[in-house]
Structure formats: C-alpha cells, structure tokens
Amino acid sequence: MRSGSVDVDEPLRLTWLGHSTVLIELDGVRLVTDPLLRRRVAFLQRAEAVDIGTIGDVDAVLISHVHYDHFDVPSLRLFSRSTPFIVPSGAGRYVRKLGFRDVLELHRDEERRVGRVVVRSTHAEHDSQRWPSWRRTASLGYVVAGTACVYFAGDTDLFDEMHDVAPALDVALLPVAGWGPRVPAGHLDPARAAAAVTRLRPRVAIPIHWGTYRRLDLRLDAADMRRPADEFARAVADVATEVRVSILPIGGTVEIATSGSPGRGDVQGGDADETSCRGLCDSS
Fold first, then answer.
1. CA atoms within 13 A on the CB side of 58
2. Which of 106-110, 230-234, 243-247, 263-267 is predicted least confidently?
3. Res 282 pLDDT > 50
4. Nearest to residue 92, comparing CAs of 146, 134, 33?
5. Which of 104, 18, 9 is nearest to 55 (CA)?
6. Cα distances (angstroms) measured from residue 18 to each of 91, 210, 243
7. Which CATH number fits domain 12-268: 3.10.450.50, 3.60.15.10, 3.20.20.150, 3.40.190.10?
8. 13-36: per-residue pLDDT in tens?
9. Domain residue spans in the chain?
10. What are residue 252's phi and psi, to 5 degrees?
11. Furthest C-alpha separation in the chain
12. Distance (Å, rounded) from C-alpha 230 to C-alpha 243?
C-alpha cells in the first residue's frame, strides 16, 4: 500500500495503457486494472509499446477474470509481491501462487475500501474458463467510488442489471472490440457497447479493449486499429447524445473534475469533439 498525502481537490485521472489496462487515480488512490503490458503475447503483437514506469506504485490491482489477456502472469510479476490484489471468487489461489500476499476474493456486489475510495464488484456476462487445467472462476466488473464514480466493465456482454450498476456514474470504461475481425459472444462490439451506454448513462464513456494488439496474420494499419473506437463514438452520438466519448491513445490520460474539485463537469484530454457532455451527476 502506498502512503502519502491525499488531496481530494485533484481531478479524476484515467490513463489507458492499452487493452483493458487502465490506471485510475482518484482521491489519492491509484488502482490498475487487468495489467497486460507485454510487447508480444502468443500470436499477438502490440501496436505500440507502453511505458511501464507510468504505473509506478499502486494501492491495488483489480483483476476482472482469468483469461490470458486479463490475467497475464509475466505482467503481474512486474508488481511488488506486497501489492494488494482484488480478484473474482476462485481466482485468489492463482494470484497467491505467484507470491502475492494480500489477495482479496470478491463475489458479486461485495465491497472493499482502498484508502478513500470504495471498490465494489459487479456482474459481468462472460465465461472465464481458462484452459487447460484452471478451474472455472467468476468474471466481474468493478465500480470505484469516491468523489467520482468509475465503472470498469472487464469483459462482458449486455446484461439486464446493467441499468443498476451505479445510479450516478461519472465514467464508464467499456470494451468495444478485440484483436480479430469478429467479437465473440460474451463481449461488446461498438454497437453493443453503445447500447450499454444507454443503460449506464455515464457523464463520460471511454472505449477500451481495442487497437492494442494485432494478430500476426492480419494486416492492419493505424486506421483499421482505431476503427472500433470511432464506430463506438458515432454509435453513442446516435443513441446517447448527452454522453461524452473520450478516445484515448495508448498511454493517453484524461482528467475529469470531481465533486471535490473546481470546475465540475470539465473533461481534459482525449478527443474533445466526439460528443457533448451532459449535466453533473452527484457521486458524493
């Protein structure tokens, strides 16, 4: 656990490090989701390298499920063994085998306080079986709540309870693609991710799980890699005009004013012209 002063006047900072890896900085707490930081993963090649030093010390790592692109053992080994982990029920044994000592397993709708924020687990509509010999474990999303409220979906399809994930949501981090030409069941493509936005109604939606890794057998240029994020932004503009979409480059950061900071409603970073931003929601 890190130590240091806490300044709740600071904005929410979100840094997308590619795929489903996001550094969340809120109320003096630093969390990272599903670290996947390698240049090469099996038959996948990273489009852009990431500066691992951007992450630094974190207060906890959030793991949504144990598929290889969300529970990447070489990436996890980059963290200090004293780093706290929050993981789905059944996944703790695999984290402890790596030498991590502070591991909390959550069932759906359970909470843990990390510093000045509360992390709450949510349902995810996703089969998390990891082959060949791992037991089936749960899949989760997470809501991080303090002076702002952030939803990290992990991998999921649409589900009925998505309307109730958080009644006053500032940011939704939503997967919109993968690394192949099609997105299988249990995932969101750009259109379905936009449908998720209509259920979640965040102030800001940020697409993740796109444009990071390309299959070695597919020839994709920069425009091809970015296409899912652009399609998502256009779809949100059609169905939820009050929601702002912020498309981040790999390593890019967006700052969002919170209920504890001046200029509530301001969004700095990402694509400023994608959609409009609706009125403020009370996340205090």
1. 26
2. 263-267
3. no
4. 134
5. 18
6. 23, 8, 22
7. 3.60.15.10
8. 999 999 999 999 999 999 999 999
9. 12-268
10. -80, 155
11. 51
12. 15
